[in-house]
Amino acid sequence: MAKWKVWVDRDVCIGDAICASLCPDVFEMDDEGKSFAKVEIVGEDLIDCVNEAAEACPVSCIHVEQIE
């Protein structure tokens, strides 16, 4: 089964929260109003919403890398 590493470049994040809206199982907003991946390794069950969030991000700060 494939797995992906997910991370957010917090220096680029503008905090619009679209990722947390589209994929709340993976993304959350912190006290600074920036997104972070609360799940860093995702499987096939979550990759579709992660990709949707990454594509919707207006500043392309969500990174997804297949690791298996």
UniProtKB/TrEMBL annotation:
Q: Which PANTHER family match?
A: FERREDOXIN
Q: Which InterPro entries match?
A: 3Fe4S_ferredoxin, 4Fe4S_Fe-S-bd, Fe-S_cluster_ET
- What cofactor does this protein call for? [4Fe-4S] cluster
- This chain's source organism reads Thermococcus barophilus (strain DSM 11836 / MP)
Q: Quote the protein name from its UniProt record.
A: Ferredoxin
Q: Which residues cross the membrane?
A: none
Q: What function does this protein fulfil?
A: Ferredoxins are iron-sulfur proteins that transfer electrons in a wide variety of metabolic reactions.
Iron listed as a keyword: yes
> Does Transferase show up as a keyword for this record?
no
GO MF terms, alphabetically ordered: electron transfer activity; iron ion binding; iron-sulfur cluster binding
Q: Which SUPFAM superfamilies match?
A: 4Fe-4S ferredoxins
Assigned keywords, A-Z:
Electron transport, Iron, Iron-sulfur, Metal-binding, Transport
Which residue intervals define the domain 4Fe-4S ferredoxin-type in the entry?
Answer: 4-32
